[in-house]
Design brief:
- By secondary structure, this protein is an alpha+beta fold.
- It has 1 helix and 4 strands.
- It has one domain.
- Helices cover 15% and strands 27% of the residues.
- 21% of the residues are buried.
Length: 82
């Protein structure tokens, strides 16, 4: 059986890490997997302020974020692209 993936939008507390200023989009098995993917892919640490599960990419900034995302259906970080 294939595990379910969830899209997350993660925002960090101030001071925000440079790569996470706008937030981080990640698709993962669960919250712990999402934070692990962010840490390993972006080397971003810091205090998480807010995590939104099942984020709809249509709800994200259409001018800055959406034109610059990867594949949100695949497991991994899809914003920001590195």
């Amino acid at each position: 059986m294939k595990a379910e993936l969830t899209r997350y939008w993660v925002e960090y507390s101030e001071p925000r890490p440079f790569l996470a200023k706008l937030g981080v989009g990640v698709t993962a098995f669960d919250v712990n997997d999402a934070i692990g993917l962010i840490s390993s892919s972006l080397s971003v640490g810091g205090e998480v302020a807010h995590i939104r599960a099942n984020i709809d990419v249509r709800d994200l900034d259409q001018n800055h974020i959406v034109p610059n995302i990867g594949a949100p259906s695949d497991r991994g970080v899809w914003f920001p692209l590195t």
